[in-house]
Design goal:
extended; transmembrane helix; three-stranded parallel beta sheet; membrane; 4 domains; mainly alpha; 4% strand; transmembrane; 52% helix
């Protein structure tokens, strides 16, 4: 006769023979009858794919399976059974393994997603809490987007969509069969297409049935998309390569800033300003002047702007805007509109606002347009740097960085070029100029 304890132990460790403990329950009976009992219990399983722990652990490595079995081993239950000599029900071993495997898959990923932004970025978010997690989420978003050079949210949505679409356990083998039309066609072209389709479908089935292969494939797809978008954006800048900003992304044009600042009460103690319209500006004007970042309805925004205006108009030595330019003749009007919109914020813009330009090697008339601007401007100063008495127009013979970005022909190619060196040149020029009073650069 077979003890019922043995049946319980077998059911708890089905598929894991090494977890079965023998003894303490079989007082009589032959080994043949015991084997038959085990076989009968195995034949009664109606859904082995969903209830067998071995099938559940098959995606893990041998080392991971050992960890799961070590953590979920029912040693205490067996110990109580042996000590008390009675029949006590074992804990659900399969459920314990499911929970452990789930935690092993989720916790490392969460640790990387959360730990990386906290380890490599020391500017931690402030004023966040359990009921106000947005600053922390925004911090993680900012760090990962900076590391990837791409917004993390499309990647999250793409990954979730793939997981939601794929069936549990991956695509079935029947998916690998080519379509009936192509398979039955006798033409050579159709036969080749059917063969290619069968290869692709088989590859998809193979990848979808493995967790690490799916992760690797998704990573390759995301990296390829990021590199492609970056290359297109640097080679041919356009909103066309940024589909995630189509429709909702707003561009604030420099020409609108001049009209938005008209009628503003820029003196902080102005009696014309009111609580409903701080600085005598409507909410739409605040939106235009701040590119949608500030609001007249937010007290902190209003107070911050008022303190900044008070410093700019009454305490600072002025503002210097510096620009590096090459073949940007078409962009000069937009820069002038921005400078014209800044002038009203100063009590004496002619002595407090200045534009310093370093231009080199342009062949589209950029320097000529800047010189014309400097001659005609009376509200503020426009200063175009030269490169010494022997080279006043800065003809340096430098190759344009956009023409020098082929990594196959030029291993030292850089999208930045010599911008760092030129920025230092313009900074040294500003600091050494005796007739310039500097408060901010």
């Amino acid at each position: 006769m077979t003890s019922p304890n043995l049946k319980l132990r077998y059911q708890a460790a089905a598929g894991n023979p090494q977890d079965i403990e023998w003894g303490g329950g079989a007082t009589s009976g032959s080994s043949d009858s015991l084997d038959e009992r085990i076989i009968d219990e195995k034949n009664k399983e109606t859904a082995p794919s969903s209830s067998s722990p071995n099938r559940f652990l098959s995606d893990l490595s041998p080392f991971s399976r050992r960890i799961v079995r070590f953590v979920t081993r029912p040693a205490a239950a067996f110990s109580n059974n042996t000590t008390n000599g009675g029949a006590s029900s074992l804990p659900d071993h399969f459920v314990a393994e499911c929970i452990t495997v789930t935690l092993m898959r989720i916790l490392p990923a969460i640790a990387v997603l959360v730990g990386t932004p906290l380890l490599i970025w020391d500017s931690y978010p402030q004023n966040w809490g359990v009921f106000h997690p947005w600053p922390l989420i925004r911090h993680f978003d900012m760090v990962w987007s900076a590391l990837l050079h791409f917004s993390i949210w499309p990647i999250v949505v793409f990954t979730i969509a793939v997981v939601a679409v794929l069936p549990r356990g991956g695509l079935s083998k029947s998916f690998a069969m080519p379509t009936t039309f192509r398979a039955s066609s006798s033409s050579g072209g159709a036969a080749r297409l059917a063969k290619m389709e069968a290869v692709v479908r088989s590859l998809m089935v193979n990848i979808s049935q493995s967790n690490w292969k799916m992760s690797l494939t998704l990573s390759i797809a995301v990296v390829t998309a990021i590199v492609t978008v970056m290359t297109l954006q640097m080679g041919m800048p356009s909103a066309l390569w940024n589909p995630f900003i189509w429709g909702w992304y707003q561009v604030y044009l420099p020409g609108n800033a001049i009209g938005a600042v008209q009628g503003a009460c820029l003196d902080v103690d102005s009696s014309h300003s009111s609580n409903s319209q701080p600085l005598c500006l409507s909410e739409s004007q605040w939106d235009e002047l701040s590119s949608g970042q500030l609001s007249s309805l937010k007290r902190d925004d209003v107070q911050t702007v008022q303190r900044g205006l008070d410093y700019l108009r009454n305490q600072s030595g002025g503002l210097i805007v510096n620009a590096l330019a090459r073949n940007v003749a078409d962009s000069i009007p937009a820069l002038k509109q921005n400078m014209d919109a800044l002038a009203p914020f100063f009590k004496d813009p002619h002595n407090k606002l200045s534009l310093v330009v370093f231009e080199n090697d342009s062949d589209d008339g950029t320097r000529h347009h800047f010189k014309q601007w400097a001659k005609q401007e009376s509200s503020y100063s426009v200063d175009i740097m030269g490169c010494g008495p022997t080279n006043p127009d800065c003809k340096l013979g430098e190759k344009d960085r956009y023409d020098n970005m082929n990594l196959f022909k030029n291993p030292t190619a850089s999208g930045v070029g010599k911008l760092g060196e030129f920025r230092q040149i313009i900074l040294d020029y500003i600091l050494k100029k005796e007739d310039t009073m500097i408060s901010a650069i």
